[in-house]
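Z., the sequence and structure:
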Amino acid sequence: MDNKQVMALKENGEKPEQDIVVQQGVEIAIAQAEKQVDILEKVLQIAIKRTNHFDWVDQMGKPYLTASGAEKLMPLFGINMANTSYDKKFSKDEKGDYYIYQYKATFSWKGGSLEAIGACSSRDKFFAWDSREQSYKPLFEVDETNIMKAAYTNMLVNGITRLLGIRNLTWEQLKDYGIDKERVSRVEYKSNKTTKPKTTNDTILTCQNCDKIITNAEKKYSESKFGKALCRECQRQESKRS
């Protein structure tokens, strides 16, 4: 179809064939997206129903799926985990030496796959904070096995929830499927006296998209440009989409 034919169609109020094809493509994409939303809603419903109140914790007011819950979902949906590896990184600052365990593995399901990462530091407050002294325990008092296990379970939960699309849920969503906030365990960090806010040295900063560990500089740059904390690779992908 040449330009004269296109102009003639427009004068007659008819749409050129190319425009019709584009419109049909958009309608198909919308229909597929709506179908995908229905599927993900069904996945969410089945996933939550497979768990119980012991598989969730209230962590600082937000619901968090535990490793026991994630392990129930793996066989249910036929999720495969492969290429598991870990790394131990040492670092030091004005507070002394510390280390971070980082696990990663490839999770796959129904033709899709992703690499998930889980990390835990020897300064994790759950394992290393001395509430009586209001300071971190000496490194030799921190059970390294607990740090390793926590990093692994963080990776497991991260991979399964990302693959199934059930991250960042609310208590309202869970309540619709039988999980009541008042019946789950709570994780709280109590303090006997006022302390300074936690600094970035006490916190493991991670990418909001892939959970890779990032630096404070990467976090600040990404938040100023993209509105969220991203690693460099995810920043490049975000730039391509914008």
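The chain has three domains: 1-50, 53-188, 205-242. Strands lie at 56-59, 62-65, 80-93, 96-109, 112-121, 129-130, 135-136, 185-187.

Let me know what you think.
H.
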